[in-house]
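Components:
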Amino acid sequence: MAKQSRRTEILEQRPVNLDGFVEEWPEVGMVAMDSPYDPKPSVRVEDGVIVEMDGKPRAEFDFLDQFIADHAIDVEATEAAMAIEPVQIARMLVDPGVSRNEVLAVSRGLTPAALLEVVKTMNVVEMMQAVQKMRARRTIANQAHSTSARDNPVQVAAEAAEAALRGFRELETTLGVVRYAPLVAIALQVGALAGKPGVLTQCALEEATELELGMRGITAYAETISVYGTEPVFCDGDDTPWSKAFLASAYASRGIKMRFTSGTGSEVQMGNAEGKSMLYLEIRCILVTKGAGVQGLQNGSISCIGVPGAVPGGIRAVLAENLIASTVDLESASGNDQSFSHSDMRRVARLLPQLLPGTDFVCSGYSAVPNYDNMFAGSNVDAADYDDWNTIQRDLQVDGGLRHVPEAELLAARNRAARALQGVFAQLGLPAITDKEVEAATYAHGSQDLPLRNVLEDLKSAQQVMDRGVTGLDIVKALEGAGFSDMAHTLLAILRQRVSGDLLHTSAILTPELETLSAVNDANDYAGPGTGYRPSGQRWEEMKRLRHVVSAQNPEQEVG
Amino acid sequence: MPNPSQVDLDPARDYPLAAHRPDLLRTPTGKRIDDLTMQAVLSGEVSPEDLRIAPETLRLQAQIADRVGRPQLAQNFRRAAELTALPDDLVLSIYNALRPRASTKQQLTDIADELERDYSATLCAGLVREAADVYERRDILA
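Structure:
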């Protein structure tokens, strides 16, 4: 073996070299955003119908082409928009003198290949500048995962409370054992209420089951409604743009907020990318979402991040996904939700393009639990990264949606969540939660710190929750009956939101005061320096606090 | 109560409706939002049916979506307004019927006819008929 330098030895041991990297291979779609097989932009309209798009006549449209041409693209605007040079549209995106609405007047007429050409002219700094302007909601927010490797409801409740207190406005859970879903979804809801009012919760499941939990009011919104960029992969996902559009209307018909999910790399991973670049296919997903009349999209590669992460320019393409979602006026829940790299430097570099400009949800799943408990296979950031996140916010004066919370407040919230769930389970006749479990959940970091539950009993009662038709109203009554009246009132207020439908609008969240904030009444007004959302006043004071900050007067004394 | 179908909404003034126009909101059972109190819940006067959105409300929200330049979102709300009349299991079964290779063209046509005939759901019927045509052309019927 050839003699190796000491330098090479050290570099070989760096975590980044545990990551996977591959050469581009356009024929199978292993290319981020520039495949020789990507179509060239074109459009032709006859009698108010798009008869040619991106070089393909209507007779040859696959079902995505047809859905996009007939539902997503504004036929009135398309020929004028397509006549503008891509680089000119990119300049409009970057230029703070051009308003968001002026960009939307053009983007509503662009085909998938045209949107691709626009972002291909942009570097990541230009894309970030554009995201800052094109994000739909003025105020940024963040979303967390609260899951348990043992599907332990007590742990999920305590973690939900801590996450809510730390600032997340949405919480998502999923399961190891799917049959646990009703108990864990109830735990997530109850726990969130113990942390901070107005946090919306969801449980990621197969489409029909997810809808059922939503209809019952056990969850508040839905997100795992996947769309794909080629026809064979869409069909492998057992859906079409029409089935998904119908599902979107089904959610709205029950007053439930929802967004779709997609991301670069899914088609390569599922073996049918038709030789197109990952970003081209993702743009088709974005436009299917738009055409279905869905308010928003979770994208940014999501569970396929290893695929774009392995090819040159892949993370630039991931940012471009988020930018295009915002550019076509969708809520952007922008990824950063999947284990991505062994390298801490690379994890942060992957995060900054969403954190710095701000998106509607910077992470569509910050792991509020240690990654070993993360049932979405781990996130880019987890519970052990809280202090780093808060410090980065403070260093750069950039709002990532979180805050440092003193230990005593956290413990009180975690304890209250576990006790409230104990009370709700007792009221609903579900398996008992012991005081020992409550105590353990209060002080735990992860499921390994909690006593084991009787899984068979839990699963039996989970089935009963479904059979008995338990609803959100039953949880309200159980909370009230168990003496958690404030939480009962808050949950009732969240359920009442369904009657008004205000949360169905683009980028809607509930504030801790239970007011709806969306792109309708909190539209992004960024127009260059000195405008738009920037953390100030009380929020900036809150961001200045960290675990260890010393007094200016007395360096021996810690403040905050 | 003003007739919701004749109300002219200004998104800047009227949204969120729960805060600014509660006078326009009723549950499908005819209750006002103010009626959905904890006391009413505990005494059993509020059922899960009361926590649903009414078709008139979805049409008001469609008007808001249109006025802020989101026609697709508005159209989704109008389809949703039609679906409020369908029971949960029928909604789920139509969704399943629209999956690839799940239905024949005749089955989809029958669903569209049923939507139109029994529920006046013309927009949803149109979506299902459109799907039937595309599925035939792309060979993904059962």
